[in-house]
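Input (structure):
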């Protein structure tokens, strides 16, 4: 009886391990649970040169937040034709107006405060009017945390971008994968890709890209089994921003096994492919770039099945 019980116990243990492996499998020989390595190009701080000072919003800013949203009134809103984005909304001076994915429209709510509001000045609601091309009924306002009123279009709070300096600029489009120019309907301007899809890179072959067409990467010091673990923390995240979770239905060409999100120790949610945490690279400034490939011998583009493209065996 003792031998029979022990055999049954071993079978049960093996079955449990197999179930975990099926959910979050990993390639052997790729794990190293030691300290993080974010690349050979790192400067004194250990993470390389980053133009974004770490506020995560895509613009350098050191001044105190404005006492009122955006300071400059919107004036008469207009609609212009952008060669890449189609029709976009501008303020009275021709500056592009943006919306933020982390805000909500039903009910309207602005989540961009502090450093975020320095990089993305909120547009005041007072005095905003419309020209032809925008339905006046779509205009509204939302009360911000500081009590000021911010302009909304179709419920979405409106912002300018600190790096747009002249009429026609749209430098904020796609920043951090969460900021988009506003269409006259209040929707995001420009065609968008699925949350995750596959691009055939001329050098690397099929690789995963995010909804903005930016290359997705894996960090070889991360873990996928028995659960996803990211070892890129602190200043590392300034250089390698996490990819936010997307639904399996919002993917195309990516293997569904292990396609899920998880919550990091810092509370931020991150997407995985085959249970491996995925990131973008701050050194990639346009879709199609793969400047993060092979950095430090630890960062690699991701194949549709979650494997690191070009990583040593």
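Output (sequence):
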């Amino acid at each position: 009886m003792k031998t029979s019980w022990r055999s049954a116990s071993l079978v049960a243990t093996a079955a449990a391990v197999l179930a975990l492996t099926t959910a979050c499998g990993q390639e052997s020989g790729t794990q190293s649970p030691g300290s993080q390595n974010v690349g050979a190009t790192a400067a004194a701080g250990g993470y390389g040169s980053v133009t974004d000072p770490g506020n995560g919003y895509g613009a350098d800013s050191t001044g105190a937040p404005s006492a009122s949203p955006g300071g400059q009134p919107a004036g008469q809103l207009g609609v212009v034709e952008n060669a890449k984005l189609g029709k976009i909304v501008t303020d009275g001076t021709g500056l592009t107006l943006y919306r933020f994915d982390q805000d909500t429209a039903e009910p309207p709510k602005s989540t961009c405060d502090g450093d975020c509001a320095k990089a993305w000045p909120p547009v005041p609601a007072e005095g905003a009017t419309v020209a032809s091309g925008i339905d006046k009924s779509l205009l509204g306002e939302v009360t911000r945390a500081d009590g000021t009123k911010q302009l909304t279009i179709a419920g979405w709070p409106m912002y300018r971008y600190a790096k747009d300096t002249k009429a026609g600029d749209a430098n904020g489009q796609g920043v951090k994968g969460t900021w988009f120019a506003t269409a006259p309907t209040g929707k995001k301007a420009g065609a968008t890709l699925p949350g995750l899809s596959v691009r055939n890179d001329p050098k690397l072959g099929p690789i995963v890209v995010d909804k903005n067409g930016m290359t997705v990467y894996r960090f070889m010091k991360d873990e996928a089994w028995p659960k996803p673990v990211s070892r890129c923390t602190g200043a590392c995240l300034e250089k390698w921003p996490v990819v936010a979770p997307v639904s399996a239905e919002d993917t195309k060409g990516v293997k569904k096994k292990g396609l899920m999100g998880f919550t990091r120790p810092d509370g931020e949610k991150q997407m995985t492919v085959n249970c491996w945490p995925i990131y973008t690279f701050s050194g990639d400034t346009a879709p199609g770039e793969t400047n993060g490939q092979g950095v430090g011998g630890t960062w690699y583009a991701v194949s549709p099945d979650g494997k690191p493209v070009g990583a040593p065996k």
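Notes: Helices lie at 2-23, 115-119, 236-239. The CA atoms of residues 124 and 155 lie 14 Å apart.
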